[in-house]
């Protein structure tokens, strides 16, 4: 069925075949670019089916009949309009999470080079999605996570409190020491900031600085070990220790977790990681003396915690 339209510049009326629906043409009278309106629905086979209700097979068959280039996309959200797609068919620049609701998005003709690039990008996206799903399939599952002294990333704050519960009658308090005892306050000994409580972050220690009994790592005394929880789940353990013990700690980590995935120098940093978690060992300094740092963090929870960091706009 032909489509009736007129040039928006010179108002010249003309007709085009409906196979050009959604494309741009050139007015033969003035040379202006004219967008050809799309069709509200499409005829698939012998039945009339709105495009939004068509199956992927019906969409592909109809697009082939019309000889129209298009991208079929799954969308997680439900926006009023389909996510934008460039003439190259690039979906990855869209902020929309393209997974669940099916859209058929017409594009201009795609050359071989653009199609190849688009497929490579989509394949990379699928790889990242699969990795992400594997990492967070069960946030308390220990198989793909790391632990320090039996404290698994992802463990609950309640379990942590129960594990390290002890009474200090002389001080009139119980342990562990947690920042949610003083919400909204900066606590240097816990490295807790004022905004942590509003973001659902709790910092904890199993010792008090005055006790001078911080936990050991690889039988080396630490200066401090800070546990951080997001929404009640352990997402980071950060330990600081004398740099003279760096090579001893590195040796023990190699024995326990195998060879590191990466190692850099100046500054020296050693990293172990899998699909769910990361270990970072950073060399401090000898002259002047600076402590070395060991961090265990749950990748997905850590990413969520970073997303809650308040921007400068919140302080205006």
Describe, in plain words, how this protein is organized in 3D.
By secondary structure, this protein is an alpha+beta fold. It folds into two domains: 40-136, no CATH class; 147-315, no CATH class. Helix content is 20%, strand content 30%. The protein contains five helices and 21 strands. It has helices at residues 56-66, 112-136, 157-163, 246-257, 299-307, and strands spanning 2-6, 13-17, 24-26, 33-35, 42-44, 47-49, 70-75, 101-106, 147-148, 151-152, 166-168, 173-175, 177-178, 201-205, 216-217, 220-230, 233-241, 262-264, 269-273, 277-282, 292-298. The strands form seven sheets. Strands 13, 14, 15, 16, 17, 18, 19, 20 and 21 form a nine-stranded antiparallel sheet that branches. A two-stranded antiparallel ribbon has the order 1-2. It is elongated, with a radius of gyration of 29 Å. The model is unreliable at 40-47, 75-80, 85-101 and 132-141 (pLDDT under 50).
Beta-strand percentage range? 25-35%
- How many structural domains are formed by the residues? 2
Sequence of secondary-structure elements = EEEEEEHEEHEEHEEEEEEEHEEEEH
Largest beta sheet, briefly? Answer: 9 strands, antiparallel
The secondary structure category is alpha+beta
Annotation field: number of helices: 5
Shape: elongated
Mean pLDDT, all residues: 78
């Amino acid at each position: 069925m032909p489509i009736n339209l007129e040039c928006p510049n010179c108002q010249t009326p003309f007709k085009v075949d409906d196979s050009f629906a959604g494309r741009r043409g050139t007015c033969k009278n003035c040379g202006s670019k004219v967008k050809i309106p799309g069709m509200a629905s499409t005829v698939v086979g012998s039945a009339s089916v709105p495009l939004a209700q068509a199956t992927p097979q019906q969409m592909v068959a109809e697009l082939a009949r019309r000889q129209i280039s298009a991208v079929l996309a799954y969308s997680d959200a439900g926006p009023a309009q389909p996510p934008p797609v460039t003439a190259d068919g690039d979906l990855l620049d869209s902020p929309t999470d393209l997974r669940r609701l099916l859209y058929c998005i017409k594009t201009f003709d795609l050359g071989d080079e653009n199609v190849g690039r688009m497929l490579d990008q989509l394949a990379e996206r699928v790889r990242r999605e699969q990795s992400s799903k594997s990492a967070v399939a069960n946030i308390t599952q220990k198989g793909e996570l790391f632990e320090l002294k039996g404290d698994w990333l992802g463990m609950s704050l309640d379990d942590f409190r129960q594990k390290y519960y002890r009474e200090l009658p002389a001080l009139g308090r119980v342990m562990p020491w947690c920042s949610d005892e003083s919400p909204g306050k900066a606590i240097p000994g816990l490295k807790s900031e004022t905004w942590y409580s509003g973001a659902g972050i709790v910092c904890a220690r199993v010792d008090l600085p005055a006790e001078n009994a911080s936990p050991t790592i690889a039988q080396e005394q630490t200066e401090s070990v800070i546990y951080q929880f997001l929404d009640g789940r352990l997402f980071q353990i950060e330990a600081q220790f004398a740099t003279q013990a760096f090579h001893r700690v590195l040796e023990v980590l190699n024995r326990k977790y195998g060879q590191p995935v990466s190692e850099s120098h100046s500054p020296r940093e050693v990293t172990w990681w899998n699909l769910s978690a990361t270990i970072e060992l950073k060399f401090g300094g000898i002259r002047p003396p600076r402590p070395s740092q060991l961090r265990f963090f749950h990748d997905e929870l850590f990413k969520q915690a970073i997303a809650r960091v308040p921007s400068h706009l919140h302080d205006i």
